[in-house]
Design a protein that fits this description.
Chain lengths: 360, 1138
């Protein structure tokens, strides 16, 4: 009994001792004073850590290869129509499709997996009312019969539910981007799966039960007003269709800033010649131009990019780290000077103090 | 309720009113007199049919008037003595019957209860001002955002023809078809979004701050309450924090107003001098007993040694009386107006003229006393005496021997046998309750028997019988003389009656009289039983008691002498009150006597003693009758009764015959001079407000270090208004001249370093004001207040004597209002209540004078010296902590909101936030609330030892240096900078990326949390396990909450789902890189500024800390090299310097 109780008692005694000290405000305390000599190591430590880290980040950022192509004003390829596709679709009151082609040349071969992004400028996907205009329950495939009020005015129409509802879904980017090898006039294969977050893909977006058509899963639904296809017609791949379409999933994740890029697909590196990346050469981009951006003065871009572990190309982080590191080193030196110049005072005090403490 | 009848035969009942005023002594209440006469012996409720007229309900606890008009036209007066208040407890009374006069909300307890005062501290007022600034900032932020919103919206107007803007929702119409105008007008959008922004940005107004501050204050008060140093070992009392919301005020006090009696002094009166028949008898106080137990009940410790000369003279008086008595079988005649008579009367006044309650001894006490069951009948009393006698001897042996030397007469000169057994026939009244009563027997017994059997029977060794320090000249039995030494007797032997008095003066006097043989044995409403040496028991009939009040400054008692049936008025009061009312037509000798006594009085007061004069007046029957008639009219009057009674009292209290005077020492409490010195070093101006005489007060002021010998004392004793004004002007001019001279000499002497300017010999002044002058000064018409205060400002210490309670309060108020300073008032008595209530912080001393002061106070301490730690340590801490926490909160909320503001630049001022609603709510509530609370409760900018050793550090709070308006703006600027860093640096990290809005928001939130944690880490002055725990807890909370929230809820709460956000963010290197970079960069300036401050221009506290550390370090090195373990005492370690 005693053997078992002993540690218990000890811990109890310890606890009561702690309690006592706590009540008397006499807990052991470490009282750092931020004098020059105390803060010196901190500055040097930060400086010495940040500068190399920044250099490494810069290196990683530079290792990323990127190619950007603005195709907003590209001209229609159709015979007899020599005006920009944006004009074409506006004239048809946004019902016509327009195909256009943009040539580009890769001068430096890309060495790693290449991702295809589309970029939009001046598109405020983070607008307060826009961000809210979605129904997560509907996208979960759970409750498709009554859209959330957040979706209004893209919730219901004539008793039919927009699938998917809300302004975000309604405004989904629907240009089709296809890359062609200009020399071979050969279509480059794109992998359209695994481009969204796994968590989104697996859990956040689910189709309603039943076959993906308007009689079972999407019964009593209509497509959003700006859409040209129904939601179950987004892809030929059944696992990438309906709410589980990854383009939709990617689009539904609101971008942080009005200038953003979203992943469109991955270059299929199983193609001949693409095994080690993206070979140099002449290519062209064929766009099924559907998405109007003139109304908000936006731009559309196609981006080809490799990634590092940091994601895309971003020199800022590296530069920032180097700058902050340098500032810290500089401060460290300044404090070193201060310590050498003024720190002696503390030593003097120490000597005086020993004999005459607290005397003025 | 008004008592009509009680179980007591006299209609008395006893109450304890500790619930009301905290006084735990028994108070006597009596049933209404004059009614019972008509009701015969048995009181029957059914037969009670009277009208009762009572005053309207008031809050005055000790005031009640009313009458019962009788059928005969008489009016039976009702007074507070008839009234039992709600919340009183009935004691020692079996039952009472009465009429409820006030009920429910009209009871005095309820009326006094109403409305607890809400004091708002200076810090809080300052804070409220800044909150208003926050509102202004909020308004501007909203205005800017709303304008931006409108402007942004307007840029899409022109493009409307080119199609719909996909991210702008059409006007809320049921159809998605484009209405004629897709968008609302920019002005309308701006207007709407203004209100949206108010909701979004309202976090900048730190509502949570108020809650947090209350929590912090509560815990601070808890810590103050727990502090062991505030425990007074003697009384077992500890600090009592009655106000929960002003602990930080303690750290900002500029003026301390203190009462003298009971606050600076013990209020445990020690009878020191008396002057009878113009002979000065002084008594040496026995100092070391003061440290022994001193609870009110057993107030029998030996506090002074009896004056041998006085004893001798007394016995000289009584001896003839004793011999004379039995022979003539008639009351002994003391020559009228003889010195002897005066002496007896003097002591009689001491014993009788008071309101002392002689407590009863419950029977079981006696049983316990001797360890056996003693029946209360007298048969066994001798055994009791015997037992107690031997026990006394054995116990008192050692101290008695020490005392022996004091006594010039080790053996009784009296021929009367000292043995209790020598007097076998006991009078029936010799009950154990009054064991003194045997003395009557002996006194009555003329035969001086030195009983030979005494020594043979008693097993005592010879020296023992000699040893007891008997004031045997008094000719009393030995056990009685032993009983006067209860400090050496074991407490169970409670033979002396317990005296309980409202004022300790009375107690001291009764005690003194007791020691000289004049024992007050019983006191009831109508008679007083006093044992007088030489006369034995005398039962005086009390005709009237004219109670003490502060206007008359005296009290009187009119008694009928048991033998001569003379009606005698004994009066006791302040010297001025008595000396002015002495009879004028007296012979030269008396005049000389009065003059000499006055001289003695002056000597006493110079010694710092409280003086009281005793006087007597023999009333002729006719005189008495006429006065009594007038008095009863005054008593029965309803309107203006107080004044009429006062007049009536004054009518009878004149033509007095001076008996003598007493000087009572009011001993200074422990540590008072040190405390006052520390307070003054802390820069606190100490004013002493007392009702004492000027000489007494000045003496006390010197002895308690209020005045230094080097000080120049300015006295204001004006008798007219003009004089007061002239004196003040004169002093002001003088001071101005001195200042000019000093400045001149300073500017001439060029070698005055700037640092020593303050220590340049600015002559310290002390100001003494008396009550009369205060009257003129405080008179609103006189316009002297300002001048007086400016004069007082020039003085480092002010002493106001002869001040009435109201004047005390007025002084405090005028200082508070005119000088705009924070005031603290300390007092212990009822007369300090108004002062305590007026001051910003009221501190009550839970001393002997009741608990009214404590009830009115914000903090009640047991001893004055506790004030030092309360202010210098706890006050300093509380102020420092709270000030820093308030600033931190402003910073915290502002930086968080500003981050949201910056985001509006990127989302078209739409009011969107990249941080999820849930996080917005929880961030301030959970993630960043624990560390500031911990700092607010537990941080110490300097350890206790340093603060106590360096009182000047208090100036930090006094000058509010931690929380200045500039520091507020400095913090807001810091918040601005930090928000810019946190937002824009993170934004740049995520530019041109696929980052989602909430991913970015998560990074910013995380960075903001880290920055705010680092911020508080920089602000933390002393790290304890709690600080670390707080920080770790808040970080953990962030992760745990995030994990739960973003992993469990793919679609809930109506806001866009946060599913997977945190995991995704934490898995991304950019997130971490951005978080680390921004949080460090954000707090860098503050860190640099703090470090620069500490190393280049450290403030006083840091300097003191540095010194403390280095001395500690030296100690540590020395002791470490001596290989002794001091690590247990080594509290503050600095790893970089070790």
């Amino acid at each position: 009994m005693s053997a078992q109780d002993l540690p218990n008692d000890q811990s109890k005694a310890k606890q009561s001792k702690f309690n006592q000290k706590f009540k008397q405000q006499r807990l052991p305390a470490w009282q750092p004073i931020l004098t020059a000599d105390t803060v010196l190591p901190a500055f040097f430590l930060i400086g010495l850590l940040f500068v190399p880290l920044g250099a490494a980040l810069l290196f990683f950022s530079h290792s990323v290869q990127e190619m950007e192509l603005d195709y907003t004003d590209c001209k229609s390829v159709e015979a007899g129509v020599s005006m920009p596709c944006s004009e074409v679709i506006r004239k048809s009151n946004f019902t016509a499709e327009c195909t256009c082609q943009v040539n580009f040349t890769i001068t430096e071969p890309f060495k790693k997996t290449v991702y295809l992004y589309y970029g939009l400028d001046n598109f405020y996907q983070n607008h307060r009312r826009y961000v809210k205009s979605r129904d997560d329950n509907q996208l979960l495939g759970k409750d498709i019969t009554s859209p959330s009020n957040d979706c209004n005015p893209f919730g219901m129409s004539d008793g039919k539910i927009y699938a998917p509802c809300g302004a975000i879904a309604n405004s989904m980017f629907n240009d089709s981007l296809t890359l062609y090898d200009a020399g071979k006039d050969e279509k480059l294969k794109l992998i359209k799966t695994d481009i969204a977050w796994p968590s989104d893909r697996k859990i956040k977006f689910n189709n309603p039960p039943g076959k993906l058509n308007d009689s079972e899963a999407f019964k009593n639904t209509i497509k959003p007003p700006y859409w040209t296809k129904n939601v179950w017609e987004l892809s030929d791949d059944p696992s990438n269709n309906g709410y589980k379409n990854e383009d939709l999933i990617v689009w539904m994740r609101s971008a942080a800033f009005p200038t953003f890029r979203k992943l469109y697909g991955k270059i299929d590196h199983s193609m001949i010649g693409f095994k080690f990346g993206f070979p140099k050469g002449r290519y062209y981009l064929e766009v099924q131009y559907r998405y109007p951006v003139d109304s908000f003065g936006g731009r559309k871009r196609m981006i080809l990019s490799t990634t590092s572990f940091l994601g895309g190309k971003n020199n800022f982080l590296g530069i920032a780290y180097i700058t902050v590191g340098c500032i810290c080193l500089l401060l460290g030196i300044i404090f070193l000077i201060i310590h050498i110049k003024f720190g002696k005072r503390a030593v003097d005090q120490l000597n005086i103090n020993q004999n005459t403490p607290y005397s003025d | 309720m008004v008592v009509l009848n009680s179980s007591d035969e006299h209609g008395l009942c006893f109450i304890e009113s500790s619930n009301l005023d905290g006084e735990s002594n028994l108070k006597q209440r009596q049933s209404v007199k004059g009614l019972n006469l008509g009701l015969q012996e048995e009181f029957q409720v059914t037969q009670f049919s009277y009208m009762m007229e009572v005053g309207p309900p008031t809050t005055k606890m000790y005031h009640f008037t009313g009458t019962i008009p009788l059928a005969t036209g008489e009016r039976v007066p009702l007074s507070k003595d008839n009234l039992l208040l709600r919340d009183c407890t009935l004691r020692n009374t079996d039952y009472i019957e009465g009429v409820v006069v006030y009920a429910g909300r009209e009871t005095k307890a309820m009326l006094n209860n109403g409305g607890t005062r809400y004091k708002r501290s200076r810090l809080e007022r300052r804070m409220n001002l800044e909150v208003i600034w926050c509102v202004v900032i909020l308004f501007f932020m909203c205005l800017i955002s709303a304008t931006g919103s409108g402007l942004w919206q307007s840029q899409f107007e022109v493009n409307i023809s080119q199609g719909l803007v996909p991210f702008l929702l059409p006007q809320a119409s049921g159809t998605p078809l484009p209405p004629p105008r897709q968008l609302n007008s920019p002005v309308w959008v701006g207007f709407i979004s203004f209100w949206t922004f108010i909701i979004i940005y309202q976090v900048i107004i730190p509502i949570s701050l108020y809650v947090t501050i209350e929590v912090i204050k509560l815990m601070q008060v808890y810590h103050i309450h727990q502090d062991k140093d505030f425990k007074d070992k003697k009384s077992g009392k500890t600090i009592e924090c009655r106000a929960l919301n002003i602990p930080e005020e303690l750290g900002q006090i500029e003026y301390v107003f203190t009462d003298k009696t009971g606050t600076l002094t013990e209020n445990q009166m020690v009878f020191q001098c008396c002057s009878i028949n113009d002979v000065d008898y002084s008594h040496t106080p026995i100092i070391n007993t003061s440290s022994s137990s001193s609870s009110q009940g057993s107030n029998q410790q030996e506090t002074f040694a009896l004056n041998a000369q006085l004893q001798e003279e007394l016995s000289a008086i009584e001896l003839p009386l004793i011999y004379a008595q039995p022979r003539h079988h008639q009351p002994p005649a003391v020559p009228q107006n003889s010195p002897q008579e005066r002496m007896i009367d003097f002591f009689l006044t001491l014993a009788a003229c008071n309101t002392v309650v002689v407590a009863k001894h419950p029977h079981h006490d006696q049983m316990n006393a001797s360890g056996m069951i003693v029946p209360s009948n007298s048969a066994n009393s001798s055994e009791v005496d015997n037992a107690s006698f031997t026990s006394i001897i054995s116990n008192s042996w050692a101290p008695a021997k020490v005392l022996k030397g004091m006594w010039p007469f080790p053996r009784p000169l009296s021929p009367i046998a000292p043995s209790p057994r020598s007097t076998p026939p006991r009078t029936p009244e010799s009950s154990p309750r009054y064991p003194e009563s045997p003395s009557i027997n002996i006194h009555m017994n003329p035969i001086p028997v030195q009983n030979p059997s005494h020594h043979s029977l008693d097993p005592m060794p010879e020296p023992l019988s000699n040893s007891p320090p008997r004031p045997t000249l008094l000719n009393i039995q030995p056990e009685l003389s032993f009983q006067q030494l209860p400090s050496v007797t074991p407490p169970p032997l409670d033979i002396k009656p317990i005296y309980e008095a409202e004022s300790p003066d009375e107690l001291a006097l009764v005690d003194a009289a007791y020691k000289y043989g004049f024992r007050l044995l019983r006191r009831s409403l109508h008679n007083i039983l006093v044992s007088i040496p030489g006369l034995g028991l005398c039962e005086y009939e009390v005709l009237h008691v004219l109670p003490f009040d502060s206007n008359r400054k005296r009290m009187s008692i009119i008694v009928r002498h048991p033998h001569t049936y003379q009606k005698i008025l004994y009066c006791k009061g302040a010297d001025s009150a008595i000396l002015d009312n002495l009879s004028r037509d007296v012979d030269e000798q008396t005049k000389l006597r009065v003059f000499r006594t006055q001289q003695h009085l002056n000597t006493y007061s110079k010694l710092g003693l409280r003086v009281l004069c005793m006087a007597k007046r023999v009333l002729s029957d006719s005189e008495y009758e006429s006065w009594a008639a007038g008095h009863s009219v005054a008593e029965n009057s309803l309107g203006g009764r107080e004044r009429k009674l006062h007049d009536s009292y004054c009518r009878i209290e004149k033509n007095l015959n001076l008996l003598g005077a007493t000087g009572i020492e009011d001993r200074l409490q422990d540590g008072v001079p040190e405390t006052i010195q520390a307070l003054r070093k802390a820069g606190i101006v100490v004013w002493v407000l007392t009702g004492d005489k000027q000489e007494t007060a000045i003496n006390i002021a010197y002895s308690c270090a209020l005045f230094q010998p080097t000080m120049e004392i300015l006295k204001l004793n004006a008798r007219t208004k003009d004089q007061a004004e002239r004196t003040i002007n004169f002093f002001l001019q003088q001071i101005q001249q001195q200042e000019e001279l000093r400045e001149l000499s300073q500017s001439n002497g060029e070698c005055v370093p700037p640092g020593t300017q303050s220590s340049a010999p600015a002559k310290q002044r002390g100001l003494v004001v008396d009550g009369r002058t205060l009257l003129y000064i405080l008179d609103r018409r006189a316009n002297l207040k300002k001048k007086f205060l400016s004069l007082a400002k020039q003085c480092s210490a002010v002493l106001c004597c002869r001040a009435t309670p109201l004047q005390k309060a007025l002084i405090v108020r005028s200082a508070k209002d005119s000088l705009k300073v924070l005031t603290l008032a300390v007092g212990d008595g009822a007369n300090d209540v108004s002062m305590i209530q007026t001051a910003d912080v009221g501190v009550g001393i839970s001393g002997l004078e009741g608990r009214q002061a404590v009830m009115a106070s914000d903090y009640a301490i047991a001893r004055f010296r506790h004030l030092e730690k309360l202010l210098l340590v706890h006050g300093h801490w509380c102020y420092n902590r709270l000030a820093r926490i308030i600033l931190y909160f402003f910073y915290k909320n502002a930086s968080f909101v500003l981050i949201l503001l910056w985001y509006q630049l990127y989302n078209g001022f739409s009011g969107s936030s990249m941080i999820d609603q849930m996080y917005l709510m929880v961030f301030n509530l959970f993630f960043t609330s624990i560390p500031p609370i911990v700092v607010g409760i537990y941080d110490q900018d300097a350890p206790e030892e340093v603060l106590l050793a360096e009182p000047y550090l208090y100036s930090q709070g006094r000058t509010s240096s931690v929380y200045q308006p500039s520091t507020f703006w400095f913090n807001i600027l810091d918040a601005l900078y930090q928000s810019v860093i946190l937002f824009f640096v993170t934004a740049l990290c995520y530019q041109e990326s696929t980052a989602g809005m909430y991913e970015f928001g998560m990074t910013v939130t995380h960075a903001c949390l880290l920055a705010q944690s680092l911020h508080i880490a920089i602000e933390t002055k002393a790290w304890t396990i709690l600080h670390i725990g707080g920080l770790v807890a808040s970080l953990l909370l962030f992760y745990i909450f995030g994990a739960l929230y973003t992993a469990t809820c793919p679609a809930c709460l109506g806001s866009p789902s946060q599913y997977g956000e945190l995991g995704h963010a934490l898995a991304s290197p950019v997130h971490w890189l951005a978080v680390i970079l921004t949080s460090i960069l954000a707090v860098l300036p503050r860190f640099v500024v703090r470090a620069l401050q500490c190393s280049l221009n450290p403030d006083e506290v840091t300097q003191a800390l540095l010194q403390h550390h280095s001395s500690r370090l030296m100690d540590f090195i020395v002791s470490w090299s001596a290989s002794t373990s001091t690590s247990s005492t080594y509290r503050c370690r600095d790893p970089d310097t070790t």
